[in-house]
Amino acid sequence: MTGDFERLSVTNLSRHYGRRKALSRVSFTCDAGDVVGLLGPNGAGKSTLLSILGTLLAPSEGTVEYGAHTADQGGAGLRARIGMLGHDLFLYPELTAHENLVFFGRMYGLTDAPARAMRALERAGLGERAHDAVSGFSRGMRQRVALERALLHQPRLLLLDEPFTGLDQASTSALVARLREEQARGVLIILATHDLDIVDGLLTRELFLRNGRLLAIAGGEGPLRDRYRAAVAAS
Amino acid sequence: MRNFFRVAFLVVRKDMMVEARSLEVLSTTLFFALTVVLVFAFGLVREGRPVDDVAAAILWIATAFSGTLALGRTFERERQADTLRALLLAPADRPAIYAGKLAGMLLLMGLVELVLVPLVGLLFQAPIFNYPWTLVALLVTGTTGFAAVGTLFAAMLVRARSRDVMLPILLYPITVPVMIAGVRGTAAIFQSTPDEPLARFWVALLVFFDVVFVTLALWTFEPVMTE
Fold this sequence. Notes:
heterodimer; A: 6-stranded mixed beta sheet; 8 helices; 26% strand; globular; B: mainly alpha; two-stranded antiparallel sheet
């Protein structure tokens, strides 16, 4: 199987750590081209949900369907269609930017990984620093390399955990522009963030979470910050 | 199967590239192993004569302790930027990632043993060249058994807060049979009247442990890493 899919369906998803419920009966669906925001205070379950969607964590209850397949059915073919950028950047600081991308490209079975990595770094404005160790990069530069790593294999589903943390205004704008490009390409983007002002206008729908529960699914009218306040106040 | 070995090779090569740049794990592990051997040498060698039959035990104690240090540091590196999650997310057989990490550990521990064995031979007057291939077989099979369990536990504990305490607590009881077989087999060829058939018996037992431990680790790696 190719592992490609157009729709993501989450049904009654729960994750327990002992008696603590990190996620409780969360359900939603989204489609290719959506940019979905996971919004909520710390401990709301956003990162847990991203880990489950990324097949890195098994749910305690409920199902996630990527098109017609679950994570177990999809296996490696499904993971080839998922890209993830964590709060930590998934990069080896001792390796150069190019070596990092080539390593992960080859892990994804890309036969043209070196050339593709170089193109990705040039697109990120890091062509001249391609052969420098990542440990010498600023947070913004590392974030750009990490995003290219997550996108190198052209995933269908892109999962981002706090992607704007530590970025200056220019890097933030560049990241938003890059996400819009990927959205236009039909990538389904799900991002967890506290930066409501940055993602206002970028998100096609919002999932408000609190204490592991889905409070509301919204999208559209009015400032995002007002919708967030209303959802939290109503809970 | 070809993809399995390709992924394992990529992981080993990456680990070696990272280590070649930093030399962090190799230098600390080697320094620790040499310190262990030297401390025992001060305590157990009197007027140039070591206490009988201690060389084998010292060799395996230094290997186990330095190996534990290497396991912790290697996976600490994967934890710092959460790169282990990135490896698990790749569309590769997850057991192949384990196999790559295990092979990297074996290379590191092998390099340490290359220095450790001659030093133990020198300080404890151990006849390391009497049965060199049997000694190599004992070291390879013993180190494989120890690293097979250690790599699995170190990966499992990578996000645990008390991982530095938990790793030896979990690792040593399970690898005791490997350590005993390693020590007894090595002692059999180091003793004043060497008993090579007995050493071969311990090698065979270590091969059995290796098959069991590696098979179990390959089988359990994916479920334990996603639970």
